[in-house]
Amino acid sequence: MPDKYTIGVDTGHKYPVPPHHPMRPVMRASFLSTAIVAGILTVGLGSVSTLASDRSFGLKVGGGVFFGPKYQGSSEYRILPVPLIMPHFSGEPGEFRRRVTVRGLDDIRFDLLDNERFELGPVVGYTFGRDEDDADILDGLGDVDGGLLLGGYVAYDLDWFKIDAVATTQVTGGESGYQITLGAQNDYVVSDTITLTARVGTTFADDTYMSTNFGITAAQSLASTAGLAAFDAGAGVKDVHLELGANIALTENWDLNLRARYGRLLGDAADSPVVESEDQLSGGLRLTYKFNW
């Protein structure tokens, strides 16, 4: 069993090499997974793509550092430093309508409605799943495949805060069920250069999702090197979470974005034998420079 809250660098990418091969930890730090996170997850720390007929195009270039649990319920965390290259549209704020919002790797939203208060549209994303060698306690349980997420969302702006609901299911990498996340968010403009964000939410997951990520079958129990007992994880509320963020314009071209999230596993998710810690932390920071043409 690893010590609690050990920090390590690990992208979670798997290669067909023996579990105890001496080069395995190095090979897991792949350029592909870094590029995926750099191009999608980092945008989710507050950036919004906008579309308009009279816009100027540019790039945001910089770097970021991100951290989170190795898998849901892990007490061991991984740190991922990544380069950032993102498209950027500039102009007067009133000339643009937000159409694409990236909240994270698993939550990229496309607003299909031209409405100031109501949003509705599809959601895409990606989840890395779980590797058997992410923790000693998982030995013998097999891997949980990552894959593409598809779904939809609705949101309504109530002036001083926005409420939303997002439903997603994994469509590649194996059957994994679905999740529904309900949230409320407030953006507070401190000044022309600083915007603070606070968000609370909760997530419901169905039987298939809970069984895949938190359950242990009789066969897995027999194969478990840690001697874990069989566990039936049923549908229900999986977690509650709180997010805090800040977007700071250091200069006309330099931007700093900070994000932190605390989540608490509940119900069968918290009771699962694979869970080392019910408290789940994640977040990161990015620094970018804008090039406009």
What does the model show?
Strands 1-4-3-14-13-12-11-10-9-8-7-6-5-2 form a 14-stranded mixed sheet. The model is unreliable at 1-54 and 92-97 (pLDDT under 50). It is globular, with a radius of gyration of 20 Å. The chain is mostly beta strands. It has helices spanning 24-28, 31-41, 207-214, 218-223, 267-271; strands at residues 7-8, 48-51, 56-69, 77-90, 97-104, 107-110, 118-127, 147-157, 162-170, 178-189, 194-205, 236-249, 254-265, 279-292. It contains five helices and 14 strands. The N and C termini lie far apart (53 Å).
Helix-strand blueprint:
Blueprint lengths: L6 E2 L15 H5 L2 H11 L6 E4 L4 E14 L7 E14 L6 E8 L2 E4 L7 E10 L19 E11 L4 E9 L7 E12 L4 E12 L1 H8 L3 H6 L12 E14 L4 E12 L1 H5 L7 E14 L1
Parallel strand pairs: 1-4
Antiparallel strand pairs: 2-5, 3-4, 3-14, 5-6, 6-7, 7-8, 8-9, 9-10, 10-11, 11-12, 12-13, 13-14
The strand order across the widest sheet is 1-4-3-14-13-12-11-10-9-8-7-6-5-2
Count of DSSP strands: 14
Order of helices and strands: EHHEEEEEEEEEEHHEEHE
Helical proportion, percent range: 10-25%
Looking at how many chains there are and whether they match, the oligomeric state comes to single chain
- Strand percentage: over 45%
How much is the average pLDDT?
A: 80
Largest sheet: 14 strands, mixed
SS content category = mainly beta
Low-confidence stretches: 1-54, 92-97
Report the C-alpha radius of gyration, rounded: 20 Å
Number of DSSP helical runs: 5
Task: Indicate the overall shape.
Answer: globular
CA distance, first residue to last residue: 53 Å
Question: Brief description of this entry?
Answer:
The protein is mainly beta and 293 residues long. 12% of the residues lie in helices and 48% in strands.
